[in-house]
Amino acid sequence: MISPFSLPAVLRIRDDEFVLYLSTEQLRTRIMELAARIDRDMQGKEAVFLCILNGAFIFCADLLRCLTIDCEVEFLKLSSYGEENISSGDVRLVKDLCMDVENRHVVIVEDIVDTGYSIDFVKKHLEKKNPASLKIVTLLHKPACTRIAHELDYVGFEIPPRFVVGFGLDYARKARNIPAIYISKSDAITYE
């Protein structure tokens, strides 16, 4: 187990190196700020937080623990990366909702918005279910990689167009458990 107090400066995954980019403390502080904003905006509304699996589960759990509003949580699982570090653009629904969100206030919880393909898929999928409102919170956003733009209501950090791992984000299923965000050391691992 990697403790937040003993994070290595460099992670090696496969043949690639990643350097510490956002510390556990930076993430904790920003998540508390996002939760405070969401609390204010969603006051008096029955919110459903829709966690996009697999990547957003750690961010979603930390965010929900910081909220004071009454809320529910639901999960949706997508696939667009497979074993690669570049989104294929072919987004597939792997697990759909198990609850009715008609006339509910839905907050989509994403780990990262880069190309916008996944968030576009989720929004279109949910709009067919007639929610009262849809908001998006994402821990990370890569504006330089955006192909399909959507309004992001809450953004933790804007980051450069480099591959990142940790805090739920993986590289071919590795490094999700790292309690910080690491960024590729080389320009070789970037989004095209």
Keywords:
Rossmann fold, globular, 192 residues, single chain, 4-stranded antiparallel β-sheet, alpha/beta, 6-stranded mixed β-sheet
Write a structural description.
The protein is an alpha/beta fold and 192 residues long. It has one domain: Rossmann fold (3-Layer(aba) Sandwich), CATH 3.40.50. The protein has three helices and ten strands. The chain has helices spanning 24-41, 57-66, 117-127; strands at 10-13, 16-22, 47-53, 71-79, 92-95, 105-113, 133-141, 154-158, 164-165, 181-184. The strands form two sheets. Strands 5-4-3-6-7-8 form a six-stranded mixed sheet, sandwiched between helices. Strands 1-2-10-9 form a four-stranded antiparallel sheet. Helix 3 links the parallel strand 6 (105-113) and strand 7 (133-141). The radius of gyration is 16 Å and the shape is globular. Residues 188-192 have low confidence and may be disordered.
Write down the CATH topology: Rossmann fold
Number of domains: 1
Percentage of residues in DSSP E strands: 25-35%
Give the name of the CATH architecture.
3-Layer(aba) Sandwich
The level 1 CATH classification is: Alpha Beta
Q: Largest beta sheet, briefly?
A: 6 strands, mixed
Oligomer: single chain
Global mean pLDDT:
90
Coarse structural class: alpha/beta
How would you write the strand order of the largest sheet?
A: 5-4-3-6-7-8
The coarse silhouette is: globular
In short:
By secondary structure, the protein is of the alpha/beta class.
Question: What's the helix and strand layout?
Answer:
Blueprint: E1 10-13, E2 16-22, H1 24-41, E3 47-53, H2 57-66, E4 71-79, E5 92-95, E6 105-113, H3 117-127, E7 133-141, E8 154-158, E9 164-165, E10 181-184
Helix pairs in contact: 1-2
